């Protein structure tokens, strides 16, 4: 763990909204110490509630998913999803620069 941090980039994407206004966020990245903390911190900082989450690690890569909803319960617009996705990726990259891995 750690040797692949920054060698391969991270990806984040949303999958369609649920009927209750929740969305599923997927994050794929090298399995580096601090990534999950960085992602969760970005999600909470974006004022989202994490309703469910899961993680899988294989061959040095992590695939995390989060079922999230805006704290106010409103559905997220595509622009808001893009902003959150950018915040999550920025948090991962900042973690790598700090050397958390």
Provide an overview of this structure.
This protein has one domain (11-98): ACT domain (Alpha-Beta Plaits, 2-Layer Sandwich), CATH 3.30.70.260. It has a four-stranded antiparallel beta sheet, with helices on one face. Helix 1 (35-45) packs antiparallel against helix 2. 32% of the residues lie in helices and 36% in strands. The termini are close together. It is globular. It has 101 residues and is an alpha+beta fold. The longest helix is centred in the C-terminal third of the chain and has 21 residues, at 78-98.
Helix content: 25-40%
User: Average pLDDT across residues?
Assistant: 89
Count of beta strands: 4
What is the CATH architecture assignment?
2-Layer Sandwich
Strand order of the biggest β-sheet: 1-2-4-3
Q: Briefly, what CATH class?
A: Alpha Beta
Could you list the spans in which at least 5 consecutive residues all have pLDDT below 50?
none
Superfamily (CATH H level) name: ACT domain
Query: What name does CATH use for the topology?
Result: Alpha-Beta Plaits
Count of helix runs: 2
Taking the alpha carbons of the first and last residues, their distance comes to 8 Å
Q: What best-fitting shape do the alpha-carbon axes yield?
A: globular
SS strand fraction: 35-45%
- What would you report as the Rg, rounded to the nearest angstrom? 13 Å
Number of domains: 1
Largest sheet properties: 4 strands, antiparallel
Run of helices and strands: EEHEEH
Structural class: alpha+beta
